[in-house]
């Protein structure tokens, strides 16, 4: 395991890569010596310095097992979930028609309102366009769907490829985009289930163990090898404080009997 694996990775416009520990308090400076932002443990506040009309991008990647907060230059707040990457401009330039950020993984956005400059979250499949609102986007590469959950305000869901508008959400709506057939399903949900990760809780609602595994791996920075077919098909519901993965597995094993071993960062579930 490389030493950098559990650090925050920042890539600047010129390709400079910086690795930061979570406990660091540090200023992030670009090649020209200008302040990009101030990092205080699990938060980064991007400084709002006018840099003319040039867009300078930053990319920040969060390792498995961690959560990170960003405050963008326009005041928009972003919570990045484990194993997620956000690419964003250091400053949103007034001459641009939109404020665009690029997400791989999962994030919650609390967007500063600017009616003349909509905020767009671009993922590999869909774009989420907003004026000012609170919403969660889950777009991990390995997942079959992209889920957008709206807490407050309103957002438009747009196909990233052809830029067709697919839907508009109102609070408590969730749009589930299926990558394979490009279908979009919309339903009312309890948004707290989908934002629980921000508060270090894991909420599982009628989810197959096969899909829970992916979340456990990201949340706890572990690998799970499951050789128990019956368990894979079993569906679970529950809410857990994210303390350790043993507690969750032990609760699951009360529903369906199974045993497992933990060695380093690998869990093997017996058939």
Would you kindly provide a written description of the structure presented here, covering whatever features stand out?
- A hairpin with a 5-residue loop joins β3 and β4.
- The protein has 4 helices and 23 strands.
- With 271 residues, the chain is mainly beta.
- The model has no long low-confidence stretch (mean pLDDT 91).
- The protein has helices at residues 191-195, 209-220, 229-233, 245-255, and strands at 8-12, 17-20, 25-29, 35-40, 43-46, 57-62, 68-71, 77-80, 84-89, 99-110, 119-122, 126-130, 134-139, 145-152, 155-159, 165-169, 173-178, 183-188, 201-208, 223-226, 235-241, 260-263, 266-269.
- The chain is globular and about 60 Å long.
- The protein has an 18-stranded mixed beta sheet that branches.
Return the CATH topology of the largest domain: Jelly Rolls
Rg for CA atoms: 20 Å
Helical fraction equals 10-25%
Strand proportion, as a percent range, falls in: over 45%
Which word captures the global form? Answer: globular
For the biggest sheet, the summary is:
18 strands, mixed
Average pLDDT over all residues: 91
Secondary-structure element series: EEEEEEEEEEEEEEEEEEHEHEHEHEE
Number of domains: 2
Q: CA-to-CA gap between the ends?
A: 28 Å
How large is the count of helical segments? 4
Number of strands: 23
Catalogue the unreliable spans.
none
Q: What structural class is derived from the secondary structure elements?
A: mainly beta
CATH-derived architecture of the largest domain: Sandwich
